[in-house]
Structures are given as structure tokens and as C-alpha cells.
Amino acid sequence: MTEPTNVGHGQNREGSQPSLALLSGTMVSGPEEAFSSAADWFALLKPRVMTLVVFTGWIGLLVAPGHLHPVLAFTAILCIAVAAGAAGAINMWYDRDIDAVMRRTAGRPIPAGRIAAGEALGYGITLSAFAVVVMALATNVAAAAVLALSIAFYVFVYTMWLKRRTPQNIVIGGAAGAFPPVIGWVAVTGGLDLMPILLFAIVFFWTPPHFWSLSLFAHADYARAGVPMLPVVAGARHTRWQIVLYTLFLVPLTVVPWALGLTGAIYGIAAIVLGLGFIVCAIRVLRDEQDAVGISLTKDAPARASFKYSILYLFVLFAALAVDRFVG
Fold first, then answer.
1. Over the stretch 137-146, which tens digit does the pLDDT of each residue have?
2. What is the pTM of this model?
3. How buried is 224 (Cβ within 10 angstroms: 0-12 exposed, 13-18 middle, 19+ buried)?
């Protein structure tokens, strides 16, 4: 891939690092800073992403053996939510140069000039520290350590290292979103077991087909910003095949907890039915009408549908796990 020489204010010629001006928290160009609202500060937390993170963390806490006082359980989930939001705020601080040139992110508070970059960074760091300390006080040090690791992985490994350097950014970086059920489990038990490891693996292998579906219909944005997402680097056709392959690996993996006797039939049947639906979506993405280089002739309608289904899929799969735990 030929790397752009100017993908946004403050990005260097390699398209991989913000400039010194950006790192200092100043805006090189763009609109004058406007009045920021509470909604802008909330938007920095990436609330839509946070919702799924909080839910999987809550399920991890619910299905863990043992008992946690309801107030402490609520505090643990709150800490997971705050930590996820804090990592999102730091991500927006670091990525403000590429956000400014991508249509779907140009309206975010920092590139739009409603919140200063340095303030967003301080906001994210403060919330991160708060979440980790409160988790340690409310539950245990092990849960706080895993929470801190999840923040560090998202910020340093995914955002600062992988995202701008390799098309495998989502594959490896998917670990960041796979930590919440582990954190919920450790908050109750103080240690690890096979079940939270399997939940981690499920979210980890769910992430590529989920995010690559998005990147298919947002590939022009990523190309404009110089982000080496798989469709930009390897092409749409290769990405479609990767979505199918990862989905075919994911679905049997989701059945493993049932096969090992860690869950009951409610979860197992749900995993099979939901998985068949995911496979159908992936095959539709693969068979979408394409031109000679694999670009969709339907404006990526199957990819959009697959992206939406993947979100519903993970919600319902983890909900089935909780239902199985308390009813099955």
C-alpha cells in the first residue's frame, strides 16, 4: 500500500504517528474551540462500544461461582464501564488527526473543536485511575490488575502500536474487548478458570468478522486516513473470505462450554442457532455482488447486515449464558 503524505493535520509522512504539536495537546488546524456540553464529554467515552463491554462484563460476573454483594457487584460493573470509557477517551485523543479526515468520525468532540485534546487526555487518565483504584477497593486486587491490563492493552497495544501499522490490528487488538467477562469473573472469584478463558476466546474471535464487516463499507474512510485496515491493504475479496473463515472458527468455539459440561442445553442450543445465523450472514457477505476487484455493487448491504447481526449475536449469546446459569 502506498502511504499518504498528508492524511490529516499533524500526521507525519509515514501516516503512523501524530506530530509533536498533536502530542502537546494543541490543534494544528480546524475550527476554533466551541463550547462543550455534557453530551460531548459523554461522547468521548464511546457509549455505544461501552454498552457491549459492560454487558459482557456483567455476564462474566453473573455466571461466576460465588457471591458478591449487590452494591459491590454494581460498583464492579461501574468500574468496567468507566475504564472502557476512559480508554475510549484516550483513543480519541490519540486518533484525533485521523478522526478529522474520516467522515464518520469528523464530528467527534476533539476534531470538531468542542473539547481540547489535552483536556480529553487528562479526562481519560483520571477516569482510568479512578476505575482501577475503586475496583481494587470494592472487589480484589486481581480484578483491578486485569482491568488495568485491559486499559493498557487498548491504549498502548491497539491504539498506539497496531492500528496504524498492520492490517492485523483488529485481530490482535481484539483482545482489548475480550477482557470484560474475565474482569467480571475475577471480581467475584479472585482468580481465573477455564470458563472465563473460553469467554475471552469467544469475544476475541468474534471481533474480526464483526469489525471487518464495518471496514468493508467504511473502507474509503480508512483509506483516506491511511489506516491499514484489511480491505484497504488486502482488498475487499480477501476480507470477505477472512470474515467467513473466522466465523467458521468462532461458531464451534462457542459450543465448547456446552460440550465440556460447563453450561447447559439452553446456552448450547442458543450458540448453535445463533452461530448458524452468523454463518449465513458471512456467506452473504462473501456472495455479495462484486466488481472485478471485489467491491460491492450493492453498497455493501450484506456487510452492513452482518455488522448489525454480529452485535445482536454477542448480546443474545451472553444473555443465553446467564439464562442457562440461573434457569437451566
1. 999 999 999 9
2. 0.85
3. middle
Task: Please tell me the distance from the alpha carbon of residue 104 to that of residue 92, in angstroms, as a whole number.
Answer: 13
Q: Tell me the C-alpha distance between 194 and 154, whole Å.
A: 23
Q: Which residues pair with 235 in a beta bridge?
A: none
Nearest to 210 by CA among 156, 247, 178: 247
Q: From residue 101, give the alpha-carbon distance in Å to each of 98, 119, 140, 181, 253.
A: 5, 21, 42, 34, 38
Domains of the chain by start residue, with CATH: 37-192 (1.10.357.140), 193-328 (1.20.120)
> Measured between alpha carbons, how far is 267 from 261 in angstroms, rounded to an integer?
11
The length of the chain, given as a count of residues: 328
Q: How confident is the model at residue 12, as a pLDDT?
A: 39
On whether the CB atoms of residues 318 and 56 are closer than 8 A, the answer is yes
- Residue 295 — very low, low, confident or very high, per pLDDT cuts 50/70/90? confident
One-letter identity of residue 273: V
